[in-house]
């Protein structure tokens, strides 16, 4: 499938290769609810990284504004797996912004 067809079909594109020193960026658009777009984008990203089941997003960190958004994103990923008939899904680590504020202080010391 060509990149143009994929972009028009999905409404976004998965970058094929990152430019040295820069993180790839994707614009998901406004044409669908954000949870739906984000879960589909993550699903496609996971399928590109692991072409055979399970779809592995376990090394992906996603920051969302609320715990409700995290639940919605997990649910969206499960819907994507169900729609494609894939039984295996390793979900990403989904956190709220407070996770980024953690200074890494070890509670044991």
Order of helices and strands: HHEEHEEH
Low-confidence stretches: 1-6
Helix content: 40-55%
Strand share of the residues? 5-15%
Q: Strands of the largest sheet, in order across it?
A: 1-3
The overall pLDDT average reads: 78
Straight-line distance between termini: 54 Å
Largest sheet: 2 strands, parallel
Q: Which term fits the overall shape? A: globular
Short account of what is shown:
With 109 residues, the chain is mainly α. The chain is built from 4 helices and 4 strands. The protein has helices at 3-10, 34-49, 67-84, 98-101; strands at residues 55-56, 61-63, 89-90, 93-95.
List the helices and strands and how they pair.
Blueprint: H1 3-10, H2 34-49, E1 55-56, E2 61-63, H3 67-84, E3 89-90, E4 93-95, H4 98-101
Helix pairs in contact: 2-3
Annotation keywords:
single chain; 109 residues; mainly alpha; two-stranded parallel ribbon; globular; disordered N terminus
What does this structure look like?
This protein has four helices and four strands. By secondary structure, it is mainly α. α2 crosses α3. The longest helix has 18 residues. The protein is globular, with a radius of gyration of 15 Å.
């Amino acid at each position: 499938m060509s990149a143009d067809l994929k972009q028009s079909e999905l409404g976004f594109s998965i970058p094929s290769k990152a430019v040295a020193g820069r993180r790839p960026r994707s614009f998901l658009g406004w044409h669908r609810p954000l949870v739906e777009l984000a879960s589909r984008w993550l699903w496609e990203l996971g399928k590109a990284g692991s072409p055979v089941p399970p779809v592995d997003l376990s090394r992906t960190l996603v920051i969302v504004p609320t715990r409700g958004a995290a639940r919605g994103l997990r649910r969206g990923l499960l819907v994507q797996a169900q729609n494609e008939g894939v039984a295996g899904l390793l979900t990403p680590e989904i956190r709220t912004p407070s996770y980024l504020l953690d200074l890494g202080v070890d509670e044991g010391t």
